[in-house]
Write a structure and sequence with these properties.
The protein contains 13 helices and 19 strands. The protein is an alpha/beta fold. The longest helix is centred in the last third of the chain and has 26 residues.
Length: 442
């Protein structure tokens, strides 16, 4: 059979990227040519995010762009996969005629069949059970050779009032430790130095299984493999145990960078969100983490404008941030997503008010992050080199305090060549627009 050329474009989070990498591996195993460039391909597979309005708009823009390639004769078929197709199959059929087929979030493993159906002139639509999606199997890793993700679970059972993910991805399902360690060993053998452990909530890993699996147990085994850094995304505050804290503090490979999404700091808003932690419990956890790891860098996610958030509730959030000085934060405007409890709550906040609150928190957090960076000046920090920045004319890398694509960088100079993927020690000499600057320590 003809070896079709299949192009992959993945939008959204790293968890989505892993699904795209699994589809790429399946296509490659079938003998298809796999590429990242849709122009000239037989089929473009667009793996979408449909979590919030901004993500939906981005996905639709990509669909329109790929549709234009089809009109120009530079692409034959368009297959839309992931959360957008799972959430809006009817709307896609009616309003986006350039889409030739869809894969739901329970049907990534049907990608080869879908490609063949499309190239045979059929319409391909596969919507398997989201509770039974297969997350094992090979991947065609697309991240730089020194960094890779390890997705340890699929779905979510937390039921936050603002979130549609359980509907799109199903209940929380932990992968087996045996399969995860097999995959991790393969990544280590390929030279991966930074392993990023991901799931919607990694802290609940193993809770749904009956084989004794736990995040602490998994991390202890991962630390035996030849990774240099192991990074954790995301830890929910109510599920961070003393055993886990002690392990992170003890194991040198696990970087002291913890992404703990708190979303808010007013107890009334947290309850409305159906979050399980109170402000006092979050503050107590942060204090415990800082006692165990004085160098810990905290990252969080925050939502402004949830229904019922008045000026007093918002100011309480701001005061909490001033007190806690969380070094990294993603700040989002509440998006009333169909099918969520929050979308139909009373006391909806005017979008313009919510947007202004986002700006205020971003400004507040920028000052906190700038202060953290200033405190680094004069210190010597370990940096993972990611190559050369041609615009700056220097090397660029990340410290343990900076995760891939979401945090800052270190711009540094060196007399001798430094390879991408190499760990070096850099003397921090200054700051520049949220980044650190420095020179290789000789």
């Amino acid at each position: 059979m003809k070896p079709y050329t299949v192009a992959f474009v993945s939008l959204g989070c790293a968890k989505n990227l892993v699904n795209a990498e699994q589809m790429m591996a399946l296509c490659q195993q079938e003998g298809f040519a796999v590429t990242s460039d849709p122009e000239g391909a037989d089929v473009a597979v667009l793996n979408t995010c449909g979590f919030i309005e901004a993500a939906k708009s981005e996905a639709i823009d990509h669909i329109i762009e790929l549709g234009q390639l089809k009109q120009q004769g530079k692409l034959k078929k368009l297959l839309v996969a992931g959360c957008l197709s799972q959430r809006y199959p009817g709307e896609i059929r009616q309003e986006l005629p350039e889409v030739d087929g869809m894969l739901g979030t329970g049907s990534y493993t049907d990608v080869v069949q879908a490609v063949r159906e499309l190239m045979a002139g059929e319409r391909a639509e596969h919507f398997g059970d989201v509770q039974q999606a297969d997350d094992d199997g090979e991947r065609l890793v697309t991240t730089p050779s020194y960094t890779a993700y390890l997705k340890i679970a699929e779905g979510c059972s937390n039921g936050c009032a603002f979130c549609v993910i359980p509907r799109l991805r199903g209940r929380y399902r932990s992968r087996s430790m045996q399969e995860l360690l097999r995959e991790a060993r393969g990544l280590a053998e390929r030279g991966v130095q930074e392993l990023i452990v991901i799931a919607q909530d990694i802290t609940r890993y193993g809770w749904d299984r009956k084989d004794g699996a736990s995040l602490a147990g998994l991390l202890a085994e991962l630390c035996k493999l030849p990774f240099h850094w192991i990074r954790l995304h995301y830890l929910y505050p109510e599920a961070v145990t003393d055993e886990l804290i002690q392990l992170i503090a003890r194991e040198r490979k696990i970087v002291h960078y913890l992404d703990i999404p708190i979303q808010h700091a007013n107890d009334g808003i947290l309850k409305a969100m159906r979050r399980e932690s109170t402000k006092a419990e979050i503050a107590a956890l942060f204090a415990k983490l800082r006692r165990a790891m004085p160098d810990v860098v905290l990252r969080t996610s925050l939502i402004c404008g949830l229904p019922g958030e008045g000026e007093a509730e918002f100011e309480e959030l701001c005061q909490f941030l001033r007190e806690q000085k969380i070094q990294r934060a993603g700040v989002f405007q509440f998006s009333p997503e169909e099918g969520t409890l929050a979308a139909v709550m009373d006391n909806q906040v005017d979008p313009e008010t919510a947007a202004r609150r986002v700006e205020r928190v971003v400004e507040l957090q920028s000052r906190i992050m700038d202060a953290y960076n200033e405190q680094r000046v004069g210190s010597c920090m370990e940096v993972l080199c990611e190559g050369v920045d041609p615009e700056q004319g220097c090397y660029v890398g990340r410290t343990y305090a900076d995760s891939v694509e979401v945090d800052g960088q270190v711009l540094f100079t060196a007399d001798d060549p430094v390879e991408a993927g190499q760990f070096v020690w850099v003397r921090i000499t200054g700051t520049s627009d949220g980044d650190l600057t420095g020179r290789l320590e000789g």
